[in-house]
Amino acid sequence: MMSKLIGCTIAGLALMSCGNQGRSPQADSIAMRKQYAESPVLTAEQSLQHLKAEDGSSIQLIAAEPQVIVPVAMTFDEKGRLWVAEMTGYMPDTSGTGENATNGKIVILEDTTGDGAIDKRTVFLDSLILPRALCLIENGLLVAEPPRLWYVEINGDKAGKRTLVDSMYTEGGNVEHQPNGLLRAMDNWIYNAKSNKRYRKEGNRWLKEETHFRGQWGITQDNYGRLFYNNNSENLLGDYFSPGLGAANPHQRNVKGYDENIVPDNNVYPARPTPGVNRGYMKKVLDDSLRLRQFTAACGPVIYRGGLYGNAYEGNAFVAEPSANLIKRNILADSGYQVKGKQAYQGREFLASTDERFRPVNLNVGPDGALYILDMYRGIIQHKTFLTPYLKKEIATRHLTDPLNCGRIYRMFPTGSKPVPFKLTTDPAQLVVALDHPNGWVRDKAQQMLVDGKYPAAIPLLRQRLADVTKPLGLIHALWTLEGLHALTIEDVKALAAQGDAVIRRQALSVLPSVITPANEELAIAILNGFVDMPQFAPDVALVLPALKNTNLVQQLYQHFPNDPYVADALISNAKDNEAALLKEIITWNPDTNLVIRRNLQKVLRDIANQRKASQGDVLGKEFPRGSLIFKTVCQTCHGADGEGIQSLAPPLNHSEIVTGKKERLIAIVLYGLTGPVEVNGKAYKLAADMPGIGSSDEFSNGDIAQLMSYIRNAWGNKAEKVTEKDVLAIREKYKGRQKSFTIEEFK
């Protein structure tokens, strides 16, 4: 029964079809509410019948409760088994009662019969609080259990010794806004969403470095090791360049080419009315038939590299939207070093459900090339911190608190195909061969196993593989595998940098910092000199420069490309603590005040000055302890620890006239939220999502909220009158009964 397949012809029997088919744009919302007044809890087999897939796709239910409960993250081992994080304690009710219960688990799910369905469950680790991410490496498992990151040794599918990798893996933030992902990327580092940290295991040591801040929930990579992610309101964001580059200057807030908006179209097309969304009461959030218009919970992206669906699907980005019960397909294309994308369809989706409790939260490509879907299967997915009175009422009226102990995992594949997991061996020669497999998961896993196994016999085979440039994907993996084994030489890189294939040359530039030493720096400079006047490679050259000590390449690059924003930001990433001197040098060369590199440098210098003023934060934290704590757990994850905002998430609080102006306005915004464009310091910000208010949260008293506003009105470079509990009460009374967010225009 668990292995039952559902093709599109059967899926078409679902209650409604995807997108706009069969519905009037002027549909009566009252009638719709009456029709969907009840939202029954369905069995796994029943819910399967409510899934509508793209033509030519089949869906298989491979696991359901009690085999899996509230799955939020997963990974595969070399045997094709699923390791799954179960966040059982998430939001038991609208108040989050008992959310810190030690009922989370890491489980191993296995198909022992070969039909694709799970028939064996093994609990690897239990008694966890809200586990959220996991990653297999060497003979152990990285497990994220806020606020800690653990490395747990594996002894025959049982948990062994625990090592604390990072005691502050999550610094602040609530459950929705804490780091996650633990993606083991092509460059042999482990990256996270909602985080600026990356990790790497070197022997018995764990390295931790700062990198670019990325995304919110979920992270993935493409065939070239570029990272992709999103936030709740934006379909897909990502990097144009190798993830380990461009983050050398902590004074630089944003680096062009990273955190780029890859697919700007955020429209969604649910298969059913979706009144149970947090801002469903606001105009334009729902359409006339009560369907969500745009992303409000985008998460769990994956770049499809499975080789099973055919060339039209390779490199596509799939994104989950649990609020709208759907999965979106996006088509990506390279344009030089840039990546651009568009939605695959208008008016319909790759997969959508008419079951309101279908909550896809993470997507994976498996060792069989199929697309795996983690479904939390529950009513409540909005965390208590930002839960609006509107959604609380929806939950109560339609009994969405239940279920709490369900969960499903599906896999999708082309109708008529029979996905079979690729089984990897520990033979290093076979693993090197697997680097050319058409399934990207197989290539990634083979690379990881070679690096983890530290096989000396693999090194000559890998170097031999570098000589075959006719198949770039396998070559790229061989290159980074040698890097992971610390066996790559600058001569290897030099040979690849001289190839005609732009993909291979770009990878050679990306890996170059890993092999630069004082003894070979002149050769590294000579390699880079071969690219310095090429517009298509100039940003790559500039991003590599922090690995060099003595070079005139900086001058050559800014003189060749003074108005290229990618080159400008890459050069600034090389100028840590030397920004003022670089600016002076550029002005001496060319006094033009409109040069992009000059303007970007001046911005960084202003940011540095602002950061120096942030030292008074510790004093304020003692004066407003609750305000400081709320800022770190609620506000910091979007506005930044320094109050300078985070690209694609939120504008700055530091030196913001909204923060330091009339306190009545700020109180109203904090209580009820803010929507629409805003202007801060003369710069317009189009908010990617509404700033939610916290006035309806049971967590915070009026005194707490007063402390929060007093804190942010006097932190960093701000200085303004404190807010009192009486002030908060007055604004609550003034806007009693209000639910919707404010717009800035309302205060004018």
- The SS-based structural class is alpha+beta
Strand content: 15-25%
- CATH topology group of the largest domain: Neuraminidase
Number of E-state strands? 31
Number of DSSP helical runs: 22
Q: What is Rg?
A: 26 Å
Instruction: Sketch the major β-sheet.
Output: 6 strands, antiparallel
Q: Which descriptor suits the 3D outline?
A: globular
CATH class of the largest domain: Mainly Beta
- Average pLDDT, rounded to a whole number, is 90
Give start-end ranges of low-pLDDT stretches: 1-27
CATH homologous superfamily classification of the largest domain:
TolB, C-terminal domain
CATH architecture assignment of the largest domain: 6 Propeller
Quaternary: single chain
Helicity level: 25-40%
Q: Can you tell me the number of structural domains?
A: 3
Taking the alpha carbons of the first and last residues, their distance comes to: 62 Å
What's the gist of this structure?
The protein is of the alpha+beta class and 748 residues long. It is 27% helix and 22% strand.
SSE layout:
Layout: E1 5-6, H1 8-11, H2 29-35, H3 44-49, E2 51-53, E3 57-64, E4 71-76, E5 82-86, E6 104-110, E7 120-128, E8 133-137, E9 140-145, E10 148-155, E11 158-166, E12 180-184, E13 190-193, E14 195-202, E15 205-214, E16 220-221, E17 227-231, E18 234-238, E19 260-263, E20 299-303, E21 317-321, E22 326-335, E23 338-343, E24 351-353, E25 360-365, E26 371-375, H4 389-397, E27 408-414, H5 428-434, H6 440-453, H7 458-466, H8 472-484, H9 490-497, H10 502-511, H11 521-529, H12 538-544, H13 553-560, H14 565-573, H15 579-589, H16 596-612, H17 617-623, H18 625-639, H19 657-660, H20 663-672, E28 673-674, E29 678-680, E30 683-685, E31 691-692, H21 702-712, H22 725-734
Antiparallel strand pairs: 1-3, 2-24, 3-27, 4-5, 5-6, 6-7, 8-9, 9-10, 10-11, 12-13, 13-14, 14-15, 16-17, 17-18, 18-19, 20-21, 21-22, 22-23, 22-24, 25-26, 26-27, 28-31, 29-30
